[in-house]
Amino acid sequence: VTYCAAISACEQVQQWEQALGLLREMQERRLRPSVIAFGALLSACERRQKWERALTLVGTMQQQGLEPDVIACNAAISACEKGERWEHALGQLQGMLRSRLEPSIVTHNAVASACEKGAQWQRALSVFEDLLRHGPEPDVLTYGAALGACLAGRQWARALEVAQEMQRRHFELSTITCQAAFGACELGGRHLPAQDFLAAVSRRGLAIVSDQVH
Questions:
Q1: Is residue 71 situated within a structural domain?
Q2: What is the extent of the structural domain holding 161?
Q3: What's the longest Cα–Cα distance across the chain?
Q4: d(CA 158, CA 129)
Q5: pLDDT tens digits, residue range 123-177?
Q6: Is the dihedral of CA 119, 130, 72, 11 positive or negative?
Q7: What's the CA gap between 54 and 45, in Å, rounded?
Q8: Entry pTM
Q9: DSSP 43-101
Q10: What total of structural domains would you count in the chain?
Q11: Cβ contacts of residue 173 below 8 Å, gap of 6+?
Q12: Is the Cβ–Cβ distance between 77 and 92 less than 8 Å?
C-alpha cells in the first residue's frame, strides 16, 4: 500500500522517473505491484508522452498475470495518441476488445485523435462510426476528431453530416468545428455547399474565415 501511494504521489506531480524507480524497487524486493500502481505509472507516462514506456508497462502487467483495466488501457492509448502512434493506439483498442473490456468514450476519442494525427482519416472515421453504432455516447471531442478526419480526407459530404449529427444531438457548434466542416467543403472543391454552410453558420453568429470562397 505504501509503494502504491508513493507511486500515485509521483504521478500527481509528474515525476515519472521516480515512479518507475519505485516500481523497480518493488520488483527487487519481490513485491507484486497492483493494477492501481501500474495505472498510476501509465498515467505518469501519458503525461510525459512516453508511449514506448507505457506499452512496455502494459506488457509487464500481462507477464505478471495482471489484466489491465480500462483506466490503464486509456492511459496507454492516450500516451500513444500524444506520441502520434496511431497503430499502437489502435492495437491497444483491439486488445481491449479481445479481453472483453468495454472501451469508454475516452478510449474512442484518443484512438480517433491518434488516427487523425497520423493522417489515417479513414480509420478515424471508422472509429467514429463504430462509436455511433455501438456506443458509448459521443462528446464534443469525438465530433472534433471526426471533423478533423473529414477535413484531412476532403470528405465534404461526411463533414456536413457530422455537423448535422452534432445539432441533432444538441451539441453546440463551435467556430472550430464549423471551420473544419467548411474547410472540408472548400478542399473538396464543393464551393456551393461551402457557401450554403457559411450562410447557415453566419446566422448562428459564428465567424469563419475563408481563403477561397467570398
A1: no
A2: 140-213
A3: 69
A4: 11
A5: 999 999 998 888 788 998 888 888 888 888 877 778 878 877 877 787 776 666 6
A6: positive
A7: 6
A8: 0.77
A9: HHHHHTT-HHHHHHHHHHHHHTTPPP-HHHHHHHHHHHHHTT-HHHHHHHHHHHHHTT-
A10: 1
A11: 163, 166, 167, 201, 204, 206
A12: yes
DSSP-assigned letters across all residues of 125-161 = HHHHHHHHHH-S---HHHHHHHHHHHHHHT-HHHHHH
Q: Is 67 exposed, middle or buried (0-12, 13-18, 19+ CB in 10 A)?
A: exposed
Question: Cα dihedral sign for 128, 129, 134, 136?
Answer: positive
Tell me whether residue 134 is in a domain.
no
Q: How many CA within 13 A on the CB side of residue 192?
A: 0
Query: Could you tell me if residue 50 is inside a domain?
Result: no
Distance of CA 117 to the CA centre of its chain: 10
What is d(CA 157, CA 194) in angstroms, rounded to the nearest whole number? 10
Closest by Cα among 184, 138, 191 to 160:
184
Q: Whose grid coordinates read 473490456?
A: 101
3-state secondary structure of 33: coil
CA dist 170 and 51 (Å) reads 35
Contact 48, 57 (CB under 8 A): no
The reply to whether 154 falls in a domain is yes
pLDDT in tens, 103-130: 999 999 999 999 988 989 999 999 999 9
